[in-house]
Write a structure and sequence with these properties.
With 316 residues, the protein is mostly loops. The protein has 2 domains: 1-106, Pectate Lyase C-like (3 Solenoid), CATH 2.160.20.80; 108-316, E3 ubiquitin-protein ligase SopA (Pectate Lyase C-like, 3 Solenoid). Helices cover 4% and strands 6% of the residues.
């Protein structure tokens, strides 16, 4: 198979060892426990793939793209990842000791590129305060910011796309319209942060503390007039996340995973919840009024809701 498109396919447990799957688009495929022993997946796109328990022993993964892919207990003994793009990939319980990682792209720390976090924050604050006339916008895309302390900082409109930010502390931070696309934010702290209009599309926020955050829309002014800028969270993961007391009004939560999340007294009014998963979530006191819940799993359905109504959520 070469240059094929099999996006979103469920290939869990598949046995495709010794196969040739070159330059193939496997975006968002479920490849849990699949066997790709000695397979050739060079130059293929595995963005967003679930690779938990997948066996890539002696596989050719050179030049492949793994943005947002989840490697959990994945076997890579003898695998060739030379030139692969691993920016934004998430790793747990993975042994790289027998892997060819030459020229692979991985997230770099600020220290590795001789950048001062303090200087970046100060320059960005000046940029925000002067509407871009002074200072410089913080662009930390593809960087490793794990466990950094950014609490209380003004990071509105900053670019963190594809960054590794496990355990980062953003308590009470101002992140209006900030870009967290495909970020690894597992275990991060956002308690009481202002996230109005922010973009968390495809981000992994599992286990994060987002108590009392504000994710509602923000009013913006433009030469053409202005209007509400809504937060976009589509396909984000909130498994086990603390969201009690959060303001989640008028957001796009399409296909989000809220399994086991603490949603007590969270306010989802006006949000798009299409195909979202709420299995085993704590929803005591949660407000789902005026939401589009079509296809959602595990969410209570009110007697008075209109299944044909859809909020006006603009395209990202």
């Amino acid at each position: 198979m070469e240059k094929a498109k099999v996006r979103g396919a469920n290939m869990s447990g598949a046995k495709v060892s010794d196969s040739v799957i070159v330059q193939t688009d496997l975006t968002d495929c479920n490849l849990k426990n699949a066997k790709f022993v000695r397979a050739n997946l060079s130059l293929s796109n595995l963005t967003g793939c679930d690779l938990e328990g997948t066996d890539f022993t002696d596989a050719n993964l050179s030049g492949a793209i793994f943005h947002g892919a989840v490697f959990n207990g994945t076997t890579l003994d003898g695998a060739d990842l030379s030139g692969a793009d691993l920016i934004g990939a998430m790793f747990d319980n993975v042994d790289f000791s027998k892997v060819d990682m030459s020229d692979a792209k991985i997230a770099k720390s600020l220290e590795a590129v001789d950048v001062s976090l303090k200087d970046v924050i100060a320059a960005h604050a000046a940029w925000v305060k002067t509407n871009g006339k002074d200072g410089k916008r913080a662009v930390m895309s593809r960087m490793d910011l794990s466990n950094k302390n950014l609490s209380g900082c003004n990071l509105s409109a900053a670019d963190f796309s594809l960054a590794t930010m496990k355990g980062v502390d953003l308590t009470k931070a101002e992140c209006l319209m900030a870009d967290f696309f495909y970020c690894d934010l597992r275990g991060a702290t956002f308690a009481r942060a202002d996230l109005r209009g922010a973009k968390f599309s495809r981000a992994n926020l599992s286990g994060a503390n987002m108590v009392a955050i504000d994710l509602s829309d923000v009013m913006v002014s433009t030469r053409a007039g202005g209007g509400a800028w809504r937060a976009n969270m589509d396909n984000a993961k909130f498994k086990g996340t603390l969201l009690n007391g959060a303001n989640l009004r008028n957001c796009d939560f399409t296909k989000c995973d809220f399994s086991e999340a603490d949603l007590r007294n969270a306010d989802f009014r006006g949000s798009l919840l299409t195909d979202a998963v709420f299995t085993d979530a704590d929803m005591r006191g949660t407000n789902f009024d005026n939401t589009d819940k079509r296809g959602a799993i595990g969410i209570p359905k009110g007697d008075d809701e209109d299944d044909d109504w859809t909020p006006d959520i603009p395209a990202p």
